[in-house]
Amino acid sequence: MTTKSYSKHYPRPQFVRKEWLDLNGEWDFSFDDGKVGESEHWYDQERFPKGTQIIVPFTYETKASGIGIETFHPRVWYRRNVLIPQEARGKRTILHFQGVDYKAKCWVNGTVVGEHEGGYAAFSFDITPYITYGSENNIVLEIEDSQSAVQPRGKQRWVDQNFECFYVQSTGIWKSVWLEYVNEARIDAVKMTPDIDRHMIRLDFQLHGIEGRNNLRLETRIELNGQHVQTISLSPDRPWMTIEASVKHEAGGPWKQSLWSPGSPNLYDIEFVLYEDEKESDRVQSYFGMRKISIENGQILLNNAPLYQRMILDQGYWTDSHLTPPSVEALIEDIDKIAEMGYNGIRKHMKLEDPRFLYWCDVKGMLVWSEMAATFEFNDEAVTRFTKEWLEIVPQQYNHPCVITWVPFNESWGIPTIGHEVRQQQFTQSIYHLTKAIDPYRPVITNDGWEHTVSDILTLHDYVETGDAFLERYQDKDMIVTNQIASNRWKFAFAEGYTYKGQPIIISEFGGIAFQSDKGWGYGNQVDSVEAFLERFRSITGAIQSIPYISGYCYTQLTDVQQEINGLLTEDRKPKVPLEEIRKINLG
């Protein structure tokens, strides 16, 4: 079952238009280690180096790209010629990039059209003034990357070899590239906020090109399972407009709303149509879920009922394509396997995943924690880069009902002395409050794992190997939350100056069990059989489940990733242990 708007290859499934062109596929490609591309005018059609191609959206480090060189190169160039049809004349042509790591500069037919910094946020350029209709147009992209630890990089290494839990870097285009044809008067964005207690959805519109236009009408149509729910019209007179719509509908009895949850992921179809003089100017299809995530009396609630989270940590790496999913089917397969193992949520670790992953989590009812890629140093530059990109990402993922928690920081990465340094503590507080200013409705975890400052949930990482050892450590809640004992041998729950405020407690990393191998590592002692694996998994998972004050857990991890071999699945998604056994343990 999909939403009415769904199109398999459309890169942005929550904001769908019909007129678009997929630019994934073969592009010309060149390394620029000497940083001579601009001075030699590689952005000109005839001056781009000849001879090498790359398959977008896979980075040059991957086999899927057709290149497969893992050596770091600080500057790369892409080129592709694109035919813009005559039928697009009179419209605006928007060039979209879903993800480019790290700093991109774009030329169209030899003229700069825009720049963007940040490896995880989507961005776009209006290239209309620079194109020729009915003929080929030359699109060139220069991408600058670095091994700097002040750049938000997540699990990408910043030295020449993999180490610990850090893997081959990703440089260049790693998500979809596409064109879209739109009118000047259009809908740029819609922020959708469900209110299940009032049976309403609030719609905050961002409109483009409406100044000086008369006789505009914006119509919103809502359906559920093909049945009409609501139609609302307004006459926009400014770029920012807000309306509310009832989602109550007649369903074989009294009027009610259909809620979204893991067991029942109901999604409403919604369509926005902008008319000028009753002529259609823009049409966008989307969807939303009616769900509420809240915290009351130390409990996490979903739709006003207690929620116990059984999550798995997912880094989203594949053998031949690294951070880029090899296909939509690969994303669906991961979600299905996670559900098959009895998990109801995913902590997407140090990565902002393809929007189609979030779409399928919405459709299938899989909860998601959305986590920012970390920097690994703290200074003014790191603060600026991190903040800018995070403030792009939160609005881009806001409408997904599956996203129930924001995780801007993890394990003091990029804030290494937060335990006692006031400046780093203030930085995390500022990100917490900025996130809440955009989205006051989801919990924010500030520094997942330990040394929390202000945080809606207290999350703890602990790789103790036995259930008995876990129970001994956590039997006295007060000893943990008052920093009298460390939750992870040497890390405490709160940074200096911060105290427990009754937050829910989740063990958001544990396990990490690996089979015996000399080719990688896991947490603790490696096991030598499926029986030993399941015994240890059962022991520690059962211990966590047995503690009343713990509201959920997140097991490390879904798959092996390069040298880290502690997944429940191999990197090519083969189960190491029977999935039904994992399910039995998770479901108690």
Automatic annotation (TrEMBL):
Record domain Glycoside hydrolase family 2 catalytic: where: 294-584
Pfam families attached to this UniProt entry: Glyco_hydro_2, Glyco_hydro_2_C, Glyco_hydro_2_N
UniProt keyword terms in alphabetical order: Glycosidase, Hydrolase
Domain (Glycoside hydrolase family 2 immunoglobulin-like beta-sandwich) ranges: 185-291
GO molecular function: hydrolase activity, hydrolyzing O-glycosyl compounds
Gene3D superfamilies to which the protein is assigned, alphabetical: Galactose-binding domain-like, Glycosidases, Immunoglobulins
All copies of domain Glycosyl hydrolases family 2 sugar binding, residue ranges: 22-143
Protein name per Swiss-Prot or TrEMBL: Glycoside hydrolase family 2
Organism name: Paenibacillus xylanivorans
Source organism phylogeny: Bacteria, Bacillati, Bacillota, Bacilli, Bacillales
